[in-house]
């Protein structure tokens, strides 16, 4: 599989050394859920240390494909926008279910009480508070809400998972 840069939408890239526990486990999870991504304008790639299409973009954010990471990009008219990196994700966690939720959240502008979920677009530049731990971050309009770097809310095994983790506008 390789990335089609003419297709607008989200790009999720799992990187790592060939045969690593992280890549193997996530590929297995992906095999059971791949059809769920078809309606979501989302592409998923497993890089095995070779991300030809995205080498420049990874270089730009100071990363290489040998690290066992999850990268999230957005393609828009051939332009590549870096959204988020999750470094060294736990290989036992189902990150495919996680990014499926991210892709679903990305498509919705629905929100209640100024609360936003992982993957939703940031509506205005400003400060947002992690409802689980109270950590406050500044986010730029048009980026996406991240996993909380302090309490890991939003991770599959976080205090709240991808569906239940919220950022509140402050
Ligand atoms: Zn938090």
What brief labels describe this structure?
about 170 residues, alpha+beta, Glutaredoxin, 2 domains, 4-stranded mixed β-sheet, 4-stranded antiparallel β-sheet, about 20% helix, binds zinc ion
SSE diagram, text form:
Elements: E1 9-14, H1 21-33, E2 42-46, H2 55-60, E3 70-76, E4 79-86, H3 95-106, E5 115-116, E6 126-130, E7 136-139, E8 167-169
Bound molecules: zinc ion (ZN).
Write a structural description.
- The strands form two sheets. This protein has a four-stranded mixed beta sheet with strand order 2-1-3-4, with helices on one face. Strands 5-8-6-7 form a four-stranded antiparallel beta sheet, with no helix packed on it.
- It is built from three helices and eight strands.
- It folds into two domains: 1-103, Glutaredoxin; 108-170, no CATH class.
- Strand 6 and strand 7 form a beta hairpin.
- The protein has helices at residues 21-33, 55-60, 95-106; strands spanning 9-14, 42-46, 70-76, 79-86, 115-116, 126-130, 136-139, 167-169.
- The chain is 18% helix and 24% strand.
- The protein is α+β, with helices and mostly antiparallel strands and 170 residues long.
- The model has no long low-confidence stretch (mean pLDDT 89).
- The structure holds zinc ion.
């Amino acid at each position: 599989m390789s990335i089609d840069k003419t297709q607008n939408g989200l790009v999720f890239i799992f990187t790592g050394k060939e045969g690593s526990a992280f890549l193997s486990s996530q590929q297995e999870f992906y095999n059971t859920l791949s059809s769920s991504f078809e309606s979501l304008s989302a592409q998923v790639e497993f890089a095995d240390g070779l991300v030809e299409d995205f080498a420049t973009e990874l270089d730009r954010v100071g990363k290489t494909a040998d690290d066992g990471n999850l990268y999230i990009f957005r393609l828009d008219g051939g332009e590549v926008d870096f959204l988020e990196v999750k470094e060294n994700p736990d290989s036992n966690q189902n990150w495919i279910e996680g990014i499926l939720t991210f892709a679903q959240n990305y498509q919705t502008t629905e929100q209640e009480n100024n609360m936003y979920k992982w993957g939703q677009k940031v509506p205005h530049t400003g400060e947002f508070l992690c409802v689980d731990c109270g950590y406050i971050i500044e986010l730029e309009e048009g980026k996406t809400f991240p996993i909380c770097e302090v309490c890991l809310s939003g991770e599959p095994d976080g205090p709240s998972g991808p569906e239940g983790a919220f950022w509140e506008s402050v």
